[in-house]
Amino acid sequence: MPHPLANEWHAADGIHIDVRGLSPPEPMVAILTLLEHPDTNDRVFVHHDREPVFLYPELAERGWHHQIVAGEPGEVRLLLTRQE
């Protein structure tokens, strides 16, 4: 189930979730909710206002790897991949 405040969409490169403009802890809640959904594939792009350092331990605990990738100016874009 999508988070009510985050914008989610499917694209050829994976699932995207835009949490820009949300106040903490909503970005983390939205991202973790998406990752726990059984239909979530192995590639998720996160569009964020800032680097979510408190999210990283939660991702590792759930078996996800993060990488900062190129995004729009002023955006922190993460590629999340499920660890083997």
Summarize this, please?
This protein is α+β, with helices and mostly antiparallel strands and 84 residues long. It has helices at 26-36, 55-61; strands spanning 7-11, 14-18, 43-48, 64-69, 76-82.
Structural class: alpha+beta
Instruction: Determine the number of helices (DSSP H or I, runs of at least 4 residues).
Output: 2
Question: Mind summarizing the main beta sheet?
Answer: 5 strands, mixed
Q: Average pLDDT, to the nearest integer?
A: 94
List the helices and strands and how they pair.
Blueprint: E1 7-11, E2 14-18, H1 26-36, E3 43-48, H2 55-61, E4 64-69, E5 76-82
Name the features.
single chain; 84 residues; alpha+beta; Translation Initiation Factor IF3; five-stranded mixed sheet; 2 helices; 5 strands
Can you give a write-up of this model?
The chain is of the alpha+beta class. It has a single domain (7-82), classed as TusA-like domain (Translation Initiation Factor IF3, 2-Layer Sandwich), CATH 3.30.110.40. Helices cover 21% and strands 35% of the residues. It contains two helices and five strands. The protein has helices at residues 26-36, 55-61, and strands at residues 7-11, 14-18, 43-48, 64-69, 76-82. The protein has a five-stranded mixed β-sheet with strand order 1-2-3-5-4, with helices on one face. The model has no long low-confidence stretch (mean pLDDT 94).
